[in-house]
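Q: Can I borrow your eye for a moment on a structure tokenisation matter? Would you mind producing a protein record, from residues through to fold? Write it directly below this note and I will take it from there.
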Amino acid sequence: MSLHGLGVPYTLEDTTGHLTTSDYNDTYDRMFLRVVPAMIAPNRPVLLIYDRGHRSRSPLTVPTGIEASWSSMIDLGTKKDLSEAYVVLGGPGGTVIPLKNYLKKVSKFGGSSLYRKFQALDSNEYRWQKCILPGQTWTCTNIFNQVVAHFDLKDPSEPIYDKMSSGNFFIIDEAYGQVAVELLATLILMRHIDQNKL
């Protein structure tokens, strides 16, 4: 199963492969997203996602001040079970949603923690699942089971063929570019849930 759209997908290179700090640069310079930690309160992990519109020509830097035009905020709270976690969509003053109401398990009866759904600001439902398709570490589908995005994390044991590329890619169907920030925010949350076995 591959992306279902007819356009050229956004092929965003994840420059570090890390959850908390990375740039996502589109191969064709149509999109550039940045993830950085924010120092809002001690011992409270918060991530900001910035939509910069085009490729970064400079090394990873944190935009000046939290008031800078971030597009999404992920507050993981102080409890490991994410019971205090929430997401802010649409930038400062945007929609605040507790994580438990946003990124829910698909099955209400004890299903996999790594199979979750969310309703995006475009009012459509999307689902993330881990390792369901060959070559895709994470796959996001719509309600018709069509792939709208996938994340491919390079296996550390794979050789490095090109020192200019990390080998980590976040691919988004061109038709879903308007929800790219939400797709990235939910991907980060899914990877966090997986890494911490939540």
Notes: Residues 168 and 196 are 20 Å apart (CA to CA). Residues 10-195 form a domain with the Porin fold (CATH 2.40.160). The first strand starts at residue 10 and ends at 14. The chain has one domain: 10-195.
